[in-house]
């Protein structure tokens, strides 16, 4: 390996290491880009009505802040109150669940009782997790402060990108060769359209799931319906895994009240998911990018393993962007034109050989 190649390899390793160390910041930047892309649609809509961009950006940002403030003022107090009740009720609910598990193990034949020991381990794990959550209140507050700082950075980046997105877009396009920059601009526009459609559909789905869950839990008189409904709506952001996890807390709470309510809660959430799959998703699918279920599940697991909690929530937009770039660049521009490029190269080589001078023996003048 030459010295220049060695230096290049070393620089590549150092770059990868630096990028890995700042991966959380890069994810925040990506999240800010996604939100700025979505909000830019509203800004452009206001600009079509002859409103200057600066005023349109201010209106959009104020609208976003009003939504956040309304959520904090209206929802958060009730949510915190019910969350405190949740911490008090959950130990009793887990104890009740453990009691029913032991009762089932006693009346069911021994060869089938192994299946219920998993339930015991689950309740013990939830109990230990809840105890750690209560004991480590200081670390929870510290992480909350870091989350608030990250949220402020996220909002600041979003506003900066939204105020004047053109220089950032042009700077990114300039990283590519001149002949390919127009194509990169088209790919970025497709990414913006797909991300906008996805976030609109996802937010609408989250709202519908939260409202239906709240109404259903109120009818069943399950404790803490607001907390569980908000949790169901938020977890809807995580495909496949989120809806499954959202049924556990209300089912455990229902079991602590009346055992049959746990089955009713599972049936309720199953029915809501069927409504989502058969009614809601087809209704809004026209504005969403098509993703295979196995791809979304794998993406959530992989990005969650590498990037933690933030990676789980950003897994789908990351997959959307990666899918578009792979489809447009690798498939359309490279693989689909592979045979044509190969033929062009062969044709060019043949033309060069035909126009090349003949051998020195043939071109030698006669004596």
How would you characterize this protein structure?
Helix content is 86%, strand content 0%. With 367 residues, it is an all-alpha fold. The longest helix is centred in the N-terminal third of the chain and has 55 residues, at 53-107. The radius of gyration is 29 Å and the shape is globular. Residues 358-367 have low confidence and may be disordered.
Short précis:
This protein is mostly helical. It has helices at 3-21, 23-48, 53-107, 110-135, 137-163, 165-173, 181-220, 225-235, 241-246, 248-257, 259-284, 293-313, 315-335, 338-355.
Which helices and strands appear, and what pairs or packs with what?
Layout: H1 3-21, H2 23-48, H3 53-107, H4 110-135, H5 137-163, H6 165-173, H7 181-220, H8 225-235, H9 241-246, H10 248-257, H11 259-284, H12 293-313, H13 315-335, H14 338-355
């Amino acid at each position: 390996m030459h010295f220049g190649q060695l230096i290049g390899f070393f620089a590549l390793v150092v770059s990868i290491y630096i990028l890995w160390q700042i991966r959380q910041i890069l994810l925040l930047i990506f999240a800010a880009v996604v939100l700025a892309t979505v909000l830019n649609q509203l800004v452009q809509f206001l600009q079509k009505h002859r409103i200057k961009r600066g005023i349109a950006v201010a209106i959009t940002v104020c609208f976003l802040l009003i939504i956040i403030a309304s959520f904090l003022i209206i929802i958060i107090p009730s949510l915190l109150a019910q969350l405190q009740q949740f911490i008090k009720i959950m130990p009793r609910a887990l104890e009740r669940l453990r009691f029913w598990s032991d009762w089932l193990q006693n009346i069911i034949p021994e060869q089938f009782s192994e299946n219920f020991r998993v339930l015991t381990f689950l309740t013990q794990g939830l109990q230990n997790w809840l105890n750690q959550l209560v004991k480590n209140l200081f670390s929870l507050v510290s992480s909350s402060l870091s989350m608030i700082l990250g949220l402020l950075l996220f909002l600041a980046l979003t506003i900066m990108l939204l105020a004047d997105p053109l220089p950032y877009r042009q700077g990114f396009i300039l990283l590519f060769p001149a002949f390919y920059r127009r194509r990169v601009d088209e790919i970025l526009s497709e990414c913006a359209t797909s991300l906008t459609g996805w976030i609109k559909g996802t937010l609408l789905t989250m709202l519908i799931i939260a409202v239906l869950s709240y109404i259903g839990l109120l009818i069943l008189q399950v404790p803490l319906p607001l907390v569980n409904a908000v949790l169901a709506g938020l977890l809807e952001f995580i495909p496949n895994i989120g809806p499954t996890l959202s049924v556990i807390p209300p089912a455990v709470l229902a079991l602590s009240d009346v055992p049959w309510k746990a089955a009713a809660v599972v049936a309720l959430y199953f029915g809501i998911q069927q409504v989502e799959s058969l009614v809601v998703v087809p209704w809004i699918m026209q504005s969403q990018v098509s993703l295979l279920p196995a791809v979304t599940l794998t993406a959530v697991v992989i990005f969650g393993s590498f990037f933690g909690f933030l990676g789980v929530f950003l897994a789908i937009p990351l997959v959307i962007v990666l899918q578009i770039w792979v489809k447009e660049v690798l498939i359309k521009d490279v693989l689909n034109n592979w045979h044509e490029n190969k033929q062009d190269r062969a044709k060019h080589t043949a033309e060069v050989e035909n126009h090349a001078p003949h051998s020195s023996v043939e071109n030698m003048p006669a004596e």
